[in-house]
Amino acid sequence: xxxxxxxxxxxxxxxxxxxxxxxxxxxxxxxxxxxxxxxxxxxxxxxxxxxxxxxxxxxxxxxxxxxxxxxxxxxxxxxxxxxxxxxxxxxxxxxxxxxxxxxxxxxxxxxxxxxxxxxxxxxxxxxxxxxxxxxxxxxxxxxxxxxxxxxxxxxxxxxxxxxxxxxxxxxxxxxxxxxxxxxxxxxxxxxxxxxxxxxxxxxxxxxxxxxxxxxxx
Length: 217
What we know:
Elements: E1 6-8, E2 15-17, E3 23-26, E4 28-30, E5 33-39, E6 44-46, E7 50-51, E8 61-64, E9 71-73, H1 75-88, E10 106-108, E11 114-115, E12 118-119, E13 124-127, E14 133-136, H2 138-141, E15 142-145, E16 150-153, E17 155-157, E18 173-175, H3 177-180, E19 185-188, E20 193-196
Parallel strand pairs: 8-18, 9-17
Antiparallel strand pairs: 1-2, 3-20, 4-5, 5-8, 6-7, 6-13, 9-18, 10-16, 11-12, 13-14, 15-16, 19-20
């Protein structure tokens, strides 16, 4: 959503104030590119403890896209990131992804436990500028494929040298719609900051419970 104010939950009729969001982080520009970007120059955590060993010369500029279905990660960041998550995911053996699937790490969905946050898998936390952290749980990191028989870690390697951002190389990561699903994401343009809740199913509701037709107060 754009702006701020109060959001309303249909099923219980009480207001949800955006000031109670988990965290805010500054919005920034990326070269001459249109759109919204944030920075995670403090790094990425896997499973709340292992910091991904990223290249020192790769500032973590992160874009958000409503047209990309899942997060794409630039190759120099993708390889250490995917390796760190693979090393943390030790309790279920991975299987080869089906042909045409852009994900590298896939698992039999029947072998994964479900929680109110989605599949019980290692968390991914983006350590954002401003002191906050956006933690992505299993509901935002895993995608069903092969008719639901497999669940894959839904981060894909960006094509080498991808441009389209003012003619420049792409940012380190572009967050797609799967990673934003069932989150309230607030673009506070007046204060140039982004607010986010984390996955709402952990609080017992989803985006469908909000009444966005009621004007924000």
